[in-house]
Task: structure prediction
Amino acid sequence: MGDLNVKKIILDIISIVAPDADLSDVKSDVRLRDQLEMDSMDFLDIVMELRKRYKIEVPKEDYPKLASLDSCVEYLSPKFAALTPA
Amino acid sequence: MHYDAIIIGASMSGLAAGIRLAYFDKRVLILERHYAYGGLNSYYRLDGRDFDVGLHAVTNFCNPTDRSAPLSKLLRQLRLTRDDFDLRPQRYSQIKFPDKRLRFSNDFALLEEQVASEFPESAERFRKFVADLREFNDTDLSKPYVSARKTLEERLGDPLLIEMLLCPIMYYGSAEPHDMDFTQFVTMFKSLFLEGFGRPPDGVRKIIKALVKKYRAVGGEIRMNSGVAKIDTNRGCMRGVTLDNGETLTADVVFSSAGYVETMALCGDETTQPSPDETGAVSFVESIAILDTPPAKLGHDATIVFFNDSETFTYAPPNDLVDLRSGVVCCPNNYEDHEHLTEGIFRVTWLASPTAWFALSEPAYREAKARCNEHFRNVLDSYIPGGRDRIVCTDMFTPLTIQRFTGHRNGAVYGSPKKRRDGCTPVESLYICGTDQGFLGIVGAMLSGITVANLHVLSKA
Result:
């Protein structure tokens, strides 16, 4: 799965978790928490939605790897790739 | 039958916990003994009219742009929108003591101004205190008990100002007589003064119906008229529940909004019974009248008035049935966009003694209610001259009514004075949510359910 797709998936999830967030200008390399006023409850929900929608598990120690869109792509791409057989 | 989670009580906290768990694909069952939803915040119809139980105001009213406010957080967590609750702001409210009055609204500047003009010598200390409260993390679940009264004496000094601030805060959430935990004080201060009051034009049913609808939409099961007779345990671990009809159900986890003391009693294990002083003793009576005209048209336009008519303010169960010296006057008409209510609603709430009410015989109970209604007419007349002649019908609740309908011992609306903020009990896999977890108000109740569901199920999996 391409980087763009993973980004889109994450942004879609954020729009479900935090529909009141302004997603028009999210920077890939900036911590999501810093640009979107998201709290730990919102972050838990990104993890929960990944599990609910894609059966992807993110263990607690890996939460920091979801900090920015770029780091999400890096961390989640192999997990998404493993879901879709070539 | 086995469930991932069983929730005792279709209360606001129970429904909120249920929505979270069911949304994330847990198999959830809510058991409600009563035929009505809502627990301590419920609603009913009488003589063709809608009544709310509990709700004077939804505290924590905030602007949609304030994304970190508790109300915004809870809407996000429940995947609901602001329209689902349809809250409209209050006009203004008042704290009314013999020599001084303080007005406040959803714009905090008004209270700051009022404090500055009524208590000029304390204005600067108040301003600094409020600045610190804004930074205080009251959602930290591990904060130890600190006396609010002691902290206020150190920070504000002026005893009258302290009493005037404590009056509405205690009335809207203190399970403890005379004092309260400072963290709870901060939660309440923020929710009443820094945020504010709102109400759906249809009353509390709007919120409860939104919760029930969402819970069902995400696949939650609910059984009404299904009381839990016993929580089944084995070697200190929860195994499931036995219903009043004898049916047994098993679950990985049980959340109970029945109250801490009440929940431990359901476990039946003598070694885990709380001491008697953990049962709350603060309860209320409330008289409600429907008037033929909205109060504002008769000259009374305040949303809520917290009054104290005596030299000192006492927040404690009285020796007599009712303590008439202080109380709360609520007019649900006096919120914005409530013009569709052609009749007026006038409610007066006083502190009451559960023991005194429980001791009455049936005729004495009826007579005591009649006496309360006469006091009520006097209060009504003092706010709206000739108000008693405009009464169309009245209703009333007492500590007995609250105990009967909610199962909360002593009719203790705010539950046990000892809160369990992490929701844990001595029984493994059995957790508390709602009033005895300790988040206060309607928004607090829902956040309570969300918090314990997140903490003990969702963040663990």
Remarks:
- Helices of chain A lie at 3-17, 32-36, 40-54, 69-83.
- The two ends of chain A are 10 Å apart (CA to CA).
- Chain A touches chain B at residues 16-21, 37, 39, 41-42, 44-45, 48, 51-52, 60 (CB under 8 Å).
- Chain A has four helices and no strands.
